[in-house]
């Protein structure tokens, strides 16, 4: 664990073991996740492990969107109870910006295939929780969203001005190339 790679293997293995156990008591799982966070955050604040630089941004799960915090890592790993419990902790003038970054990960960067994590589908519960807390999809083309159930959820919240108009009850491509949810 004296290298950034070793540190991240330890951290992600710890989270993976907790999630794989499917602990009967979510409260116990939540407390263990808090312990992992309590270990990661001081190391991230220090910025080094041994002689290696370390940050959430060099987490091996950072792909299209760099991981920025333990909460962001929990969104990437779709730890729904942990994420929903901590969204209300976000405060301050950058709250919507942070929520929107998390939403971007949940909507566009949800696939994960790393050391025991096999995530292929977006977590609609996390997406909905982020939308309920005020996250927006500003700057994200609806063409980038390829899952109908995800698009339906986003359209229900009407998160930005680029959202196509609502029509009848099927999803189809509109003349502009956007998917359109018909009412």
Task: Describe the model.
There is one protein chain. The protein folds into 2 domains: 4-136; 139-183, no CATH class. 47% of the residues lie in helices and 9% in strands. It has 7 helices and 6 strands, in the order ααββαααββααββ. It has helices at residues 4-21, 26-46, 70-76, 80-86, 95-108, 124-132, 148-157; strands at residues 48-49, 52-53, 112-114, 117-119, 171-173, 179-181. It has a two-stranded antiparallel ribbon with strand order 1-2. The longest helix has 21 residues, at 26-46. The protein is globular.
Shape: globular
- What amount of the residues lies in strands? 5-15%
Global Rg:
18 Å
| Helicity range | 40-55%
Number of helices: 7
Largest beta-sheet characterization: 2 strands, antiparallel
**What is the rounded distance between the termini?**
54 Å
The overall pLDDT, averaged over residues, is 82
Which residues sit in consecutive blocks of at least 5 with pLDDT less than 50? 159-183
Structural class: mainly alpha
Number of domains as seen in the coordinates: 2
Question: Largest beta sheet: what is the strand line-up?
Answer: 1-2
Following the backbone from N to C, one meets helices and strands in this order, namely HHEEHHHEEHHEE
DSSP strand tally: 6
């Amino acid at each position: 664990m004296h290298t950034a790679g070793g540190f991240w293997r330890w951290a992600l293995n710890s989270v993976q073991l907790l999630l794989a156990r499917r602990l009967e008591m979510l409260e116990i799982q939540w407390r263990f996740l808090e312990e992992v966070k309590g270990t990661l955050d001081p190391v991230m604040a220090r910025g080094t492990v041994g002689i290696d630089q370390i940050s959430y941004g060099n987490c091996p799960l950072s792909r299209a969107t760099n991981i920025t915090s333990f909460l962001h890592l929990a969104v990437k790993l779709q730890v729904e109870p942990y994420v929903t419990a901590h969204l209300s902790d976000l405060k301050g003038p950058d709250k919507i910006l942070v929520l929107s970054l998390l939403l971007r990960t949940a909507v566009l960067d949800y696939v994960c295939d790393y050391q025991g994590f096999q995530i292929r589908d977006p977590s609609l519960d996390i997406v909905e929780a982020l939308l309920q807390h005020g996250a927006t999809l500003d700057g994200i083309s609806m063409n980038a969203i390829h899952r109908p159930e995800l698009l339906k959820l986003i359209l229900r919240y009407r998160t930005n001005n680029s959202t196509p108009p609502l029509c009848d009850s099927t999803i189809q491509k509109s003349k502009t190339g956007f998917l359109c949810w018909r009412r």
